[in-house]
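Write out the 3D structure for:
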Amino acid sequence: MKHPFIIQEYLSEAEARAEKHILPAEYLLVLQPHEALWDEIKAIKEKFATDYSCEQARKGLPHITLMRFRQFQSTEIHIRHHLRNNARTIAPFKIELKDFGSFPSHTIYINIVSKVPIMNAVKILRQNAQKFMKIDKDNKPHFITEPHLTIARKLQPWQYEKGWQQLEHAGFHGRFIASHALLLKRKEGEYYKQVEKFAFEGVKEEVKQTNLFDA
């Protein structure tokens, strides 16, 4: 199965300019596993959904959230500009997934062993872009502090208890190279769609040196 976030492109620049940008939208910046690992995790989510009557697990596509925010669409061009420039300075990095964890009593997820590179990437990506991600004091951006890959969230107590009993001691292992981040957007009444793919290129920022003899 192919990655929906990659093949489901959002509106073209011309179409985006034609619609009403004054309306707010919800945004996610995520990392997505390669296709084989994506399919493996999706199968786990599908089984959880069937075993515990949890449609949310089925609908939520495998990804690692880096940040989420709600903002007016007119600000999107500034956010994308800064995220694009920031992403270029990040070198691709390995992410290792191992076994399962939980946030009692509402969320079950896959553990991420290599959290430091993710947190470093978030720190870089939010530079300059953060100031454009806040509508007001009640709509502030959220930056991930505990990276994880969700299997199911917003669980009812019985779903959490039975699901965690099954997965607490279950084994899982996978790894992938994070070579880009995806910006997703959801307008009211719609599903998330891809806005832009930001490549991690490891480009060194040029530092201008002053020649003491050039005066």
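The radius of gyration is 19 Å.
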